[in-house]
Specification:
By secondary structure, this protein is an alpha/beta fold. The protein has 12 helices and 10 strands. It has an 8-stranded parallel beta sheet with strand order 1-4-5-6-7-8-9-10.
Length: 351
């Protein structure tokens, strides 16, 4: 479904940096055995990303300045970097300008792991991520706990002293942290924790992951689209409290991405689109355009990239761009430049 008004070509940004996407080849990469155990054989390679994101943007006359490849739950972060670096060297993805690598910060060997990551990608390593969404043990996706936390099932790393020790090491090494956690974790622990490390840049992934605030995309019996357009106020309350607390930290940034996790199937109706628009604008108003960045989160397909398997529909790259421009209606050219490229360039120190 198209946004209320399709932007003219002249309103498109001159350039875009995508600060969040993934490559996968779980059938052929031994270091993706955990991912494969949960998602099966998944292949998403540089050529797919070019076809899905870069070429459609280029067809609109938009310069694609580069991207940041973000870890996808590998068994070994350095092995994942070696794989993508190899594809860069052979010319398959020279557009990748930075890496957010996988590192379990609770390990006693975390500092040694960071050194391994630096050796694997001395020119492009910018930060690390370890998925933290945890509100209890993993229940097959029925709660906010992410499948990635099966690696430490039921343990909220944000409350662990060993994790904080790892964060302190990140700050010393001038690496950033991509924070993916549930809204209640922002409230209960993340904001206070990251306030202790003002020199550590942290980027909140996927707009703080508010979860299905209008309920499921489809009715439970599969007979049609869920008609509810009244948001879950408890979920929104936790999200607002957490994001407000994080926005008070000058070192905290946020990615505007994976909108279908917040509202599964949001492209289906104008009412859902309006709810998503209000969430995006509220986020930008909290952090300012100078600390927000649009991210495509592309892997597998549009639906998975948008909703993390919580809906079978999602916007393609240009539909997402058009919707973002509608969301940003009334913002200045300077603000939109920050949202589409400038903030990502600054945060990830990209040339």
């Amino acid at each position: 479904m198209s946004p209320p008004s399709i932007p003219s070509k002249s309103s498109y940004p001159k350039e875009i940096i995508d600060p969040h996407h993934h490559f996968l080849d779980s059938a052929n990469n031994p270091f993706q055995s955990f991912f494969r155990s949960q998602a099966g054989d998944v292949t998403y390679l540089p050529e797919h990303y070019v076809a899905d994101v870069i070429r459609p943007l280029a067809d609109l006359g938009i310069h694609f300045r580069g991207s940041v490849h973000v870890e996808a739950m590998p068994d070994d972060g350095a092995d994942e970097l070696d794989w993508v670096e190899g594809m860069i060297e052979t010319g398959r993805c020279s557009y990748v300008k930075g890496f957010v690598a996988s590192c379990d910060l609770t390990l006693e060997t975390a500092e040694e792991e960071m050194e391994r990551l630096r050796r694997a990608s001395p020119a492009r390593l910018r930060g690390v991520r370890w998925i933290l969404n945890c509100v209890g043990k993993y229940r097959g996706g029925t709660t906010a706990t992410h499948v990635g936390t099966l690696r430490h099932d039921g343990v909220d790393y944000l409350r662990e002293p060993d994790f904080e020790r790892g964060l302190a090491s990140l700050e010393k090494q001038n690496l950033s942290f991509d924070l993916q956690c549930a809204p209640i974790q922002l409230v209960q622990s993340a904001a206070a924790l990251f306030a202790k490390y003002p020199n550590l840049k942290v980027c909140i992934d996927h707009m703080g992951t508010p979860r299905a605030i209008l309920g499921n995309d489809l009715l439970d019996d599969g007979s049609g689209i869920n008609p509810n357009d009244i948001p879950d106020e408890d979920e929104l309350k936790a999200w607002r409290e957490g994001m407000t607390a994080m926005a008070a930290l000058p070192n905290a940034y946020v990615k505007l991405s994976m909108l279908g996790y917040a509202v599964p199937g949001w492209m289906r109706t104008p009412e859902r689109q309006s709810v998503v628009k209000s969430l995006v604008r509220e986020t930008v108003e909290l952090f300012g355009a100078g600390r927000c960045m649009v991210a495509w989160n592309w892997h597998v397909n549009a639906a998975v990239s948008d909703a993390d398997s919580h809906s079978q529909v999602g916007p393609d790259a240009i539909e997402l761009l058009d919707m973002m421009l509608w969301f940003f209606d009334g913002y200045s050219d300077e603000e939109k430049e920050r949202l589409f490229s400038g903030t990502a360039k600054e945060f990830y120190r990209l040339d």
